[in-house]
Amino acid sequence: MKAVLTAATVALFVSLLGTPFLIRLFRRQGYGQEIREDGPQTHLTKRGTPTMGGTVIILATLLGYLVAHLIVMRGPTVSALLVLMVMTGLGFVGFLDDYIKVRKQRSLGLTARTKVVGQAAVAIAFGVLAVRFKNGSGLLPGSPYISFVRDSAITVGILGFPVLAYLIIAAASNAVNLTDGLDGLAAGTSAMVFGAYVVVSFFMFQNSCVNRHIAGCYAVRDPLDVALVAAAAMGACFGFLWWNATPAKIFMGDTGSLALGGAFASIAIVTRTELLLVVLGGLFVVETVSVIMQVLGYKATRKRIFNMAPIHHHFELAGWPETTVIIRFWIIGGLAVAFGLGVFYAEFLSHGG
Hints:
Strand content: under 5%
Order of helices and strands: HHHHEEHHHHHHHH
Largest sheet: 2 strands, antiparallel
Distance between the termini: 22 Å
Radius of gyration: 20 Å
Number of helices: 12
Number of strands: 2
Helix content: 55-70%
Strand order of the largest sheet: 1-2
Structural class: mainly alpha
């Protein structure tokens, strides 16, 4: 528990104190956000706000994890390193996207095909490596079995697992990217989801089949170390949120949103909670579904279902103040996390735990 608290605290202060430095640096370099002309007109005042703030979230997470290990004098594990690899790799893809936007002064960065290739490269590398590196108990970081709170009987096989990993990671990273449209919305919701995974991972560690065979125990490799990553990411998001809250002094950009989504997905995979992530990240699911409905509805009827998608823009154009949308969506995100944790614990009790 000491290591978990250390990871969260170090990441919090690195993000909280490091973000103002990043704001000044990016302002001097002219790394300002470009705003879509077809979006809410109130957003045009945000043009020029420094972006690529996700850089500090990634660095704070890495430092929080590193310092926690130095404190407890214990080496890193494969599962945690794979999660950090996905977070950093997708953060780099997002950084390139953001950098092109600010250098060319346009609202579009990497082409869709290039971004997909970048996401696929990181996700497939994770998928290949996650079904290697057995520990002394024979456990792998990943599993070819579809999971909700633990492995089911449905399998995609070792060869299909990298494809499954890609689909989950791409879906989660794009979902967070779609949600990142209002000041603090994605950062605040992400902090909640990472907090949930601290609880889930630490609970799995306490009830691991490796330590003791009890009813409902979890056959998950390195759950405590994954809890360190989740705690560090949570602290980093909270520290960044201080400066990202409306009116935002900096945006996380694709650098942050792709990294956070990748971290969620990879944590879900290594903790065998792939479908539980859909519940915990309920707000991200709602945002993504709203975009899909808007596109399909318009193609079918040539009419828009919402004023604008993702759905947070719909409520802005309906007259809700930005802060009202953010707070109410945080409430939805918090309720999804609370419900997901309830489902997780209820499943444990159903096994006689």
